[in-house]
Amino acid sequence: MNNRAFLTPVLIAFAMLFCVHSYAQKKNSDYKIHLFKTNETFTIDGIGDEATWQKAEPAKDFFMVLPMDDRKATQPSEVKMAYDDRQLYLLATFYKTPGNTYVVESLRRDFSFGGNDNFLLFMDPFNNQTTGFSFGANAYGAQWDGTMSNGGSIDLNWDSKWVSEVQNHEDKWVVEMAIPFKSIRYEKDVKEWGVNFSRLDLSTNEKSSWTPIPRQFPTASLAYTGTMVWDNPPPKQGLNYSIIPYVLGTTGNSSIEDISYDNEFKVGGDVKLGLTSSLNLDLTINPDFSQVEADRQVANLTRFELFFPERRQFFLENADLFANFGYSAIRPFFSRRIGLGVPIIAGARVSGNLNRNLRLGIMDMQTEKVDETGLPSQNFAVLSLQQKVFSRSNIGLMFVNKESLDYNALADSLKTEYTQFNRNLGLEYNLASADNKYNGKVFMLKSFGPDTSYNGFAQGAHLAYSSRKWNWRVQQEYISENFTSEVGFVPRNNYIKLEGSVGHLFLPASEKVVSHGPQYTGFYYFDPSMNSTDYVSILGYAVNFMDRSSLGVDVFNEYVQLLAPFDPTNTGKEELAAGTRHHWNGVYLQYNSRPKSLFTYNLTTRLGRYFSSGYRTNINAQLGYRFQPYVSLGATLSYNNLDLPDPWYTTDFWLVGTEADITFTNKLFWNTLFQYNEQSNNFGINSRLQWRYAPASDLFLVFNNNEQLSPLEGNLWSLTLKFTYWFNR
C-alpha cells in the first residue's frame, strides 16, 4: 500500500475537523479586577496593613471546581492587586473553618500542587490564552513559580526573582507577594491581561477558582481566565539585564575502568538581556549543571530508549517553543542531547514574543571536541516560530541543525562513527478551541543528512475532546525508515501507528464518591505495508473518591512481533529472535491514598503473561511520611519477577529509592536521594544542600556517589561547592 495514499485522506479529515470550534469570544471576559498605581512603600510580610490594600478592589466569591463545578466555594477567598513603577503586588486572604489543620508537605520551592493547601496566580500578559506565568505559595510559605504554555501547562523548572511571605491564623492564612516587572515578559502599552486565581483546601477536599471552570479542566486553563485591568499600561521596562555568575570547586575520585576524575575549579555564568519587554536574549559561558537534581532511575523492560526530562536552567525559559514540537515519541529537538558527557563552551538563545500573536525561539550551542574518543567539536542550532491563529490555535515552524566542525580533518574511521550534519525541518498546526473542549495537532517533519540514508519523513495528527462526562481521542503517526533526528527523541522508526481512546464519567450524588467510569484505550502499530506488528488494548474502570484518593483496574491484551532481537529481561541474557510473535493478557491495579494524610502511599501492580509464554509480576509502591512542614520522607519500591522458559528461567530484580527532604526554612533545603537498581547493578547517592541567601541566588553543596556492583565493580564520587549570585537592573 502506498504510504502517501494512506496519509493524504487522514490529513484531509483531520484538517476538516480542526476547523471546528476554532474561534469564539473568551469565556470569562466579564470577570474583571481593576488595578491602580500606588506610591506607597510596601513591606512584604504577609500582614497587609498598607493603606493601598484598604482601597484595592477585591476578587472574591470563588467558584468550586472540584469535587463539583456547579456551585460557589464553601471556603471564602479574597485577592487584591496593585502596582508601582517597579513591581506588581498581591495580597490574598484564605478563610477556613477554625480547627481544620493545614496540609503542607514541606517548605521546598515548586511544591506538588495536589499535596498542599495552596494558592496559585495565573497571568496571561499577552491575553492570548496560550502562554503566561504562574506564581504561588503553600500555606506555610513555600514558593511556586513557572512558565505557562499550551494553554495551561506549567514548567516549574523555570526560576525567577520575586519575594513573598505567608502568615497563618486560626481562621485564615494570608500570602503577600511582590513580583518585579523585570522578572516577567509582557507587551508594552497594553492595559488588559488575562488572570485567574486558584485555591486548594485539602481539609475540605475543595479546589476553587475566581472564575468558573469546568471540572474536567485544571484551574491553570488560560481559556478560562478573567481580565486584569490596569488604570495605566504597566511601566516600560527600560534597560533590563541580569548577570548570573558562578564559582565552583569540585573534588572527587574514580575507580571505574576507563573513567577518570580530576579535581577542578570553574568560573562561568549566564547573562539575561531584555531586548524588548517581551523578548529576551540569554547567553551562557562555560555552563555548569552540577547542582541539577539526579534522574530518578526506573526499571526498563521495554525495547526502546527511555525519556528523562530536561532540568538544566539555561534550557528552560520558553522551553515549549523548542521542546513541544511533534509528539512525546517524535521530538525533533531534545535538549538533553546537548552537553551530556561533553563540555559546552558557550550558548545563546533569543526567545519570547515579537508581538501578541508571534513567538520566536532561536538557540545556538557549541560543544568542545573530545580527544579521547575523537568526537569533533559540534554546533547545535534551533529555530522555532509560532504564529497564533483563530482564538487559541497556532501554526509552528521548526528547523534543527547539528553540525560537526572540522569534519574533513577527521580520520576515515571516525567519519563512519560521527555524522557530518543532521537537519530536521518541520511544520505543525496546533488546535485549541475557545472553550478548551477540543484540542488537536497536525505536523510534518523532514530529515536531511550527507546522503540519502538520512533523508526521511515523519508525520502525525490527532483530535481530542473532553467534557464533564465524556472524553475521546484519535491519533495517527507515521515515521519512515530513514527518518533521522540526532538532536531529537525518536526511539522508533519505520512504522504507522493508530491510537484511540474513549471514556465516560458518572457523577453520582454521593458523599464518598466524586466520579467513576470506564475508559478504553488502544495502540496499534503497523509496518509501512500495513501489516500488524504490535498492539495493546486496555479496558479499565476508575473511581475517584471525595477524599481525593482513587482506585483503578485495567485489563489489557498485548501482541508483539519482534522487529529486532530482544532480551526480555534487559539484563544481558540471550535474545529472542527477530520475527518471533508473542501474545499475552494481564491486569493492572492501582490505588492512590488521600493526600491530606501524614502517611501517603500509591500502589500499582501488573499481573499476567509475558514474552515466550512466560509470566511477569510487577509490584510498585510509593510511600511517604511527613513531619510537616520541615521533613518529608519517601520511598519508591519496584519489584519485577519474570518467570520464563529456558534459557532465562526465573529472573527477579528490585529497584529501591529512598529520599529525605528536609526544609529548615523556605530558603534552606537539604535533599538526599539513595537509589539501588538491581537490573543495572548500580547504587547511587545524591545529596544536595541549597541555601537561597538572596532572591534567585544560591549556595550549593552537592555530594554524588555512584557504585557499580559485581561483575563491573567500581566507584565514582564527587563533592562540589557552587556559588551563584543574580545581579540585575
UniProtKB/TrEMBL annotation:
<dbReference type="Pfam" id="PF06452">
    <property type="entry name" value="CBM9_1"/>
</dbReference>
<dbReference type="InterPro" id="IPR010502">
    <property type="entry name" value="Carb-bd_dom_fam9"/>
</dbReference>
<feature type="signal peptide">
    <location>
        <begin position="1"/>
        <end position="24"/>
    </location>
</feature>
<feature type="domain" description="DUF5916">
    <location>
        <begin position="242"/>
        <end position="339"/>
    </location>
</feature>
<feature type="domain" description="Carbohydrate-binding">
    <location>
        <begin position="44"/>
        <end position="204"/>
    </location>
</feature>
<keyword id="KW-0732">Signal</keyword>
<protein>
    <submittedName>
        <fullName>DUF5916 domain-containing protein</fullName>
    </submittedName>
</protein>
<feature type="domain" description="DUF5916">
    <location>
        <begin position="369"/>
        <end position="727"/>
    </location>
</feature>
<dbReference type="Pfam" id="PF19313">
    <property type="entry name" value="DUF5916"/>
</dbReference>
<dbReference type="InterPro" id="IPR045670">
    <property type="entry name" value="DUF5916"/>
</dbReference>
